[in-house]
Amino acid sequence: VAFGFSADSQSAVTLLATFGLAGLAGYTTVWGVAPSLHSPLMAVTNAISGTTALGGMLLLGAHSATTGSIIPDSPSHWMGAIATMLSFVNIAGGFLVSGKMLDLFRRLEDP
């Protein structure tokens, strides 16, 4: 509620709510999976991180369109920038770990 009063535009509140729902969906998805299925879950987690990154970029794009500046100047825009950065770190790390896991199953005679 306090964020809604302090936000500079209604679209920022809407985009931040979308970001929050995406984070909640990701948390619920990861927590509800059996331990034996955590390896296939990595691909789904990367997709959820992609959604979070997209939400953060939309939040930053809305800010850039209204102010003409790419530098965040409000808490909601800083949260969008941080969300975008952390999501891309998570996506890159997920692909790196997935590649290393697939290498564990490669035979020596495979190309």
TrEMBL record:
Gene Ontology biological process terms, A to Z: NADPH regeneration
Keyword Glycosyltransferase appears in the UniProt entry: no
Catalytic EC class: translocase
Catalyzed chemical reaction(s): NAD(+) + NADPH + H(+)(in) = NADH + NADP(+) + H(+)(out)
Membrane topology: Multi-pass membrane protein
Record-listed E.C. numbers: 7.1.1.1
Name of the protein: proton-translocating NAD(P)(+) transhydrogenase
Organism annotation: Craspedostauros australis
Lineage of producing organism: Eukaryota, Sar, Stramenopiles, Ochrophyta, Bacillariophyta
